[in-house]
Structures are given as C-alpha cells and as structure tokens.
Write a structure and sequence with these properties.
By secondary structure, the protein is an alpha/beta fold. It has nine helices and ten strands. Helix content is 37%, strand content 27%. The strands form two sheets. An eight-stranded mixed sheet has the order 1-2-4-3-5-6-9-10, sandwiched between helices. It has a two-stranded antiparallel ribbon with strand order 7-8.
Length: 252
C-alpha cells in the first residue's frame, strides 16, 4: 500500500492537508474521500480506521482536514458548511490529478458535518455517498453541540471558542441555516448508504428515518447500541465491512 502525506490547494488558495492511500498494484482504482465531522480532523481514530479499512479492498482513499482544522490552512471564519463543501470539491480536484485514480469511480464517506458538507457540494463527479451519524437539520445540529447559554454568548459576541478551534465565527450558524439537507437528499440521484447507531446521543436515529423519506436510492444500516463515533471496536469493524461491501457494488 502506498501511504503518503499530501497537501492540495483549497479554492481560496491556502493548503488543505491530507493522507492518501493507493493500492500498490498496476492500473487505476476507485477512490473514496473520507470527511471528518465537526470539531474533528483527519487523524481522529474513526477517520483513520474508515480510510484504512476500505483501502484494503483495492480502493484509493483520501482523508483530509477541512479549512482551518487539523493541519490545514485557513482562518476560523472559514469554518462554515458552505466552505467545507468547497473543500470537498478541492479534494475531488486533487484526486483527479492522481493517475492511479479512476475518475469515474469516486465516492465520499462523511461523518456528522462532513457528510452534510459532501451533500451541499452536490458535485456530479461523486458517484456514491455514505453518511455516518448525519443530522438532517441545522438547528438540531447546533443544539446537539451547544447549550442555550453558549449559543446566546456566541450570538452576542460574534465568535466562540470551541475545543481546539478559537474564534469560530457567527457566520457558521448563519451559513448552516442556509442549507436544506432534506431537500438536497431529495435531489440527489446517486446511491446513498446511511449508517446510524441506535445509541447516538448527538444524532438520534430519527434522522435516519427522515433521510429514508427523502432520498431516492437509499440503503440504511442501523447498528444496535452504537454511539456517535462507533467507539466499540466490533461495531466499527462491522460498519467498515458494510461500507466496503456496499462500495464494491456501488462504484465498481
């Protein structure tokens, strides 16, 4: 397996950091972009396991940091759902420059806000989507991460310090509310695999039901007892196997 640290330009020109894995064989391969969730990065254990896991089925994988997160460039005001959608497009541009990648077989796996970002991008080059623990509405998303007091302070001051991100701009909230995820799902003509745990405290399984009422070409995998990050090793291995099997049919 070829494994290398890479950097590619965002649509605004600053570098986005990633890790690329390509099977060490002749020919071209389908490729999967792995998008981390809110306040995460490409090196979180779940992202590493997902990318590495599906790569063993002779698929190239790219996990990367969104703008102003992890090792990527940018400023805190760049962290919005709309900007992350642009970053997804930049990641696809980068994959298309890799000669071992089959440009007609690109899929995206997104966790949490990463899955929402992939859908907002609505890039026709994406042939299949996998959403993991994805919220379907902006207000529900915000309320799952922030208390009323935190949101009130954020709105009053215009910025908020969140874990590793200092100065997250109020534009994050304004931009999030611009995007209707359920409408995007209804307009998506690519196959979608929805993975959802039944014990996810941040994204209730009712979100998977909402997706099922809107998406056209849908497969749903409910994982009994799984939390938001699929922390249990057996459950995580299970979703990797489900993803791999589904991808082999969806983009091969």
């Amino acid at each position: 397996m070829i494994h290398e640290t890479v950097a590619f330009p965002s649509k605004e020109g600053y570098p986005l950091a990633g890790v690329l894995r390509i099977p060490d064989h002749d020919g071209t391969f389908p490729a999967v972009i792995v998008c981390h969730g809110f306040l995460g990065n490409k090196d979180r254990e779940l992202m590493v396991d997902l990318a590495n896991g599906v790569s063993y089925a002779r698929m190239a994988t790219l996990r990367f940091d969104f703008s102003s997160q992890g090792d990527s460039g940018g400023q805190p005001h760049h962290i919005t759902l709309g900007q992350q959608a642009k970053d997804v497009k930049a990641a696809i541009d980068f994959l298309e420059s890799i000669h071992q990648v089959d440009k007609e077989r690109i899929a995206i796996v997104g966790h949490d806000l990463g899955a929402m970002s992939a859908l907002v991008a609505q890039d026709p080059r994406v042939k299949a989507y996998i959403t993991i623990a994805m919220r379907t509405d902006g207000d529900g998303f915000m309320n799952s991460y922030f208390s009323e007091a935190e949101l009130r302070e954020w709105k009053e001051t215009g910025t908020y310090d969140c874990q590793e991100i200092h100065g997250l701009h109020i534009d994050f909230i304004h931009d999030l509310r611009k995007h209707d995820i359920l409408d995007l799902l209804a307009r998506t003509i690519r196959p979608i695999l929805v993975i959802q745990g039944t014990n996810d405290k941040r994204t209730p399984f009712e979100n998977a039901r909402a997706i099922a009422t809107h998406a056209k070409f849908l497969t749903v995998e409910m994982v009994e007892g799984a939390d938001h990050n699929f922390s249990d090793k057996k459950q995580r291995q299970h979703i990797i196997e489900v993803m791999t099997d589904w991808l082999l049919r969806a983009i091969h």
